[in-house]
Amino acid sequence: MKLLYFAWVRTRTGIAEETVSPPAGVNTVSALIGWLCARGPGYAAAFADLKAVRVAVNQEHAGFDVAIKPGDEIAFFPPVTGGRDDKGSAAGF
Amino acid sequence: MKLLYFAWVRTRTGIAEETVSPPAGVNTVSALIGWLCARGPGYAAAFADLKAVRVAVNQEHAGFDVAIKPGDEIAFFPPVTGGRDDKGSAAGF
Amino acid sequence: MIKVQQQDFDLAAEIAELTRGRTDIGGVVSFTGLVRDVSDGAKVAAMTLEHYPGMTEKQLAAIERDACARWPLSASLIIHRYGRLMPGEQIMAVVTASAHRQAAFEAAEFLVDWLKTKAPFWKLESDGAAESWVEARDSDDTAAGRWEKG
Amino acid sequence: MIKVQQQDFDLAAEIAELTRGRTDIGGVVSFTGLVRDVSDGAKVAAMTLEHYPGMTEKQLAAIERDACARWPLSASLIIHRYGRLMPGEQIMAVVTASAHRQAAFEAAEFLVDWLKTKAPFWKLESDGAAESWVEARDSDDTAAGRWEKG
């Protein structure tokens, strides 16, 4: 399966995308995250606060309990930040 | 005083602007209209339906009872038509 | 800024001029009014806008001041054309810039409603043969009425 | 129409393309979002937008379809840039065209609210030295929330 990382999730994993073949038992987003965290401290840091991480499976928003299978495209990213009002971000609108 | 006519008021009077010196007793918009109507059928047609005529004195909207004096700029025109919605005018907005 | 002119305008150039050198503006709303080719179902070949030079500019400047007093605008522009226009041509534009996008939207809508109902322009429509003056209609007054205070 | 691109855009050219040959459109509303030079009081030298190619276009197309289903639009356009942007530069634009000016205004505001809160873009701000990811904030969700049905 193809994995994609965006924004600070990407800066923590250290890579933007990779193709992985986890064992058959890794068949949900949660299980995939567990498997990834065992691969190194960058992954563990990226997934340390799951409340701050969003998931998409095949380009659709998904929960952590969603089933995944070989061939899926799975992306991890922070909540989107369209920019904020007033005293907010430089994205003024 | 300077008189201005716009839109169909202008097409009825037949002129866009003119300078007139009515007698001293003609000191309100109403009196001016009466005096103009006596000058010819074009004026009489322009002022036949006063509900459809708007007045500005020195570029400010005014009522028919407003006082006027030599040197004033007095304009007569229909209600403005900014364009209408939907099935309205070609001014689509 | 108020521009009453016969010639066409380039919206992007007008917005660029309005926001040039400004790095504090979050959003810019624009509304462009176009000439349609139908009026009450009848085909329109051309439209001629007549106005009262001098009074028009005064009234547009007054409503722009009003909008700036009611909403926190960084910049604003009203352009209105007069003369003969063909279907598809631009008639007018309103541009509002603000740090607050909702303020920019509301102020633009307020100005457009006002322009549609109160701006001193008269419209003569031609179907290619006959010409007729467009009359005012109540529904527009209703739209402008929602901005009245109290 | 959806355009996700790195390069800048010319709003007037985009509107002209969208309305070309159309003589049934009464009004065109646009909103252009700009980069500001401050963020929570701190100076911003540049902003980098990252997105999820493929998913971004899908989501923008879906919200555009939603807007077209809710309002009688003649045409619509969403442009969103990504990559490195400097203060004063255009980030995004929404254009809506309709025979009904209020529909055009409402649909544009709906799309802008959505883009601000839900569009899959992440923003990295730089003050010239350090860089930091912009986090989401609740007030924007509130603005988008007013469009929820029921």
Secondary-structure map:
The complex is a heterotetramer, with 2 copies of chain A (93 residues) and 2 copies of chain C (150 residues).
Chain A: E1 2-5, H1 7-13, E2 17-19, H2 29-37, H3 41-46, E3 54-57, E4 60-62, E5 73-77
Parallel strand pairs in A: 1-5
Antiparallel strand pairs in A: 1-2, 3-4, 3-5
Chain C: E1 2-5, H1 11-19, E2 27-34, E3 38-39, E4 42-43, E5 46-51, H2 55-70, E6 75-81, E7 83-85, E8 90-98, H3 101-118, E9 121-126, E10 131-133, H4 138-145
Parallel strand pairs in C: 1-6
Antiparallel strand pairs in C: 2-8, 3-4, 5-7, 5-9, 6-8, 9-10
Helix pairs in contact in C: 2-3, 3-4
Describe the structure.
The complex is a heterotetramer, with 2 copies of chain A (93 residues) and 2 copies of chain C (150 residues). Helices cover 24% and strands 20% of the residues of chain A. With 93 residues, chain A is an alpha+beta fold. Chain A has a single domain, classed as Roll (Ubiquitin-like (UB roll)), CATH 3.10.20.30. In chain A, strands 2-1-5-3-4 form a 5-stranded mixed sheet. In chain A, strand 3 and strand 4 form a beta hairpin. The longest helix of chain A has 9 residues, at 29-37. The model of chain A is unreliable at 83-87 (pLDDT under 50). Chain C has a single domain (2-133), classed as Aldehyde Oxidoreductase, domain 3 (Alpha-Beta Complex). The longest helix of chain C has 18 residues, at 101-118. Classes of the chains: A alpha+beta (93), C alpha+beta (150). The B-D interface holds B 85-86, 91-93 and D 24-27, 99-101. Strand 2 of chain C pairs antiparallel with strand 2 (27-34) of chain D.
